[in-house]
Amino acid sequence: MEVAMILLLLVGSALAGTDQGARDEFTGLAVDFFMGKDKLASHLEMTPSEDCVEGDMQMNEEQKQAYYMMREVTAKNRARVRRAATKAFRLWPDNTFVYKFDPRLSSAMRAKFMQAVETYKATTCIQFHEAKEGYSGSIPPLTVYGTGNGCFSTVGGPGGKINLQEGRCNHLGVCLHEIGHALGAYHEHTRPDRREHVSIKEENIRNGYEGNFKVVDRLLVGIYDLQSAMHYACDAFSKDGRSETIVPHDELMKEKMGLQRKLSRLDIYKFNKMYSCYESCPDDLETACKHGGVPSKDCTCLCPDEYTGIYCETFKKTTECSAEYKDTSGIIRSPGFTRGSRYPSNTECVYAIECPEGTKVHLTFRSFDIEGWGCFFDTFETKTGPAVEEVYPNLYCDKALRGKTLTSKENLALLKFNSDSYYNYPGYELEYVCE
């Protein structure tokens, strides 16, 4: 790790002699990658914690009994098992999550937990209430503390606890994930429909941890979400820390699993659905949301970054070079490409290509040459999966896409180019066709 960082710094020094200036420091994605933080949250949750199942779920005896029944369910006993699970794993009453802090929990950890709480408050109808000294409410509070080993949570409410070990669990993704468990959510990779989306490589699982990959039967809310904050990374519980144990059928999704930098739109939809937040919304709202939007707690649509409007019907043109394409074919070029010059610094171009329903977007890159160095600086982003599932883009740089063709899963492809203030390259030219 240290050697790799030194090599990059040396490269930066060598480039300093060019007329485009030198990089003063490595920040953002570069630091996250070289410090091993790009999927840190899911790795922390996977570290076995005291008396937990699947790494970070702590259960009482009634819940454990129901949980193990859910893992061994049959068609004959499914109804009985689900009744037992409903009794053991409960949602918070009155849509109200009550919590209190252990006095020993640091202010930094409290702040990170509250950052996650604000995310849930902003996107769901669930109420969050801190039980301060003198609290006399009827809902038993969950205690947030940091004296135990690991990052873990009880499952469902009311009451329970979340442990955020000091110096280890101070990560937004960890807090989002553990609050998710406390609200009643399970891990995504144990859904009964997971076989349609991922394969489990049992030969790569650490001895004794095979049970963490058992399917857990339950009523499903929404569709499988590879980019969920409740999904582990592809090396979860691997025997050597590198081998893949969870492999998505779609290769492009591999690097997006386990990032946990935010709640996905499907996460938000599922929590709102679990807590009946849509009861007053029109019945057709879900189908009315366009371009990957999902119903919001306010009975409008929660949109991807590229769209706006009540139903996510309007492309958000944020810069001059951004554009929406609805013709069945076309050419897209980086700024300055046709003049034979290099793309400018500090540029952001967002492209939305929408083909007719029933067709897919085929992207062929005739030319592709942007700054490399690990895609930490200038990047070309693609979102070509099902629109409602896409949260994190695939990143490309250098000459990675030259001569390549990408095909969308549906009729929408979202692209984005970013350049920073340093080195400029020739750019890209791509052709798209709807077929």
Any descriptors?
single chain; 435 residues; seven-stranded mixed β-sheet; five-stranded mixed β-sheet; 9 helices
Description:
α3 packs across α7, α4 runs antiparallel to α5 and α6 packs across α7. The longest helix is centred in the N-terminal third of the chain and has 17 residues. The N terminus is likely disordered. The protein is globular, with a radius of gyration of 23 Å. It has 435 residues and is α+β, with helices and mostly antiparallel strands.
Helix content class: 10-25%
Oligomeric state: single chain
- Beta-strand segment tally: 22
- Radius of gyration equals 23 Å
Active site: 178
Cofactor: Zn(2+)
Keywords: Disulfide bond, Hydrolase, Metal-binding, Metalloprotease, Protease, Signal, Zinc
EC number: 3.4.24.-
Write the layout of secondary structure elements.
Layout lengths: L1 H14 L13 H6 L5 H7 L5 E2 L3 E2 L2 H11 L6 H11 L7 E6 L5 H17 L3 E4 L11 E4 L5 E4 L6 E4 L7 H11 L15 E3 L45 E3 L16 H10 L10 H4 L5 E2 L5 E2 L4 E2 L5 E2 L7 E3 L3 E5 L14 E7 L6 E9 L9 E5 L10 E3 L8 E3 L4 E7 L8 E8 L1
Parallel strand pairs: 2-6, 3-4, 3-5, 5-7, 14-16
Antiparallel strand pairs: 1-2, 6-7, 8-9, 10-11, 12-13, 15-22, 16-21, 17-20, 17-22, 18-19, 18-21
Pfam families: Astacin, CUB
Keywords: Disulfide bond, Hydrolase, Metal-binding, Metalloprotease, Protease, Signal, Zinc
EC number: 3.4.24.-
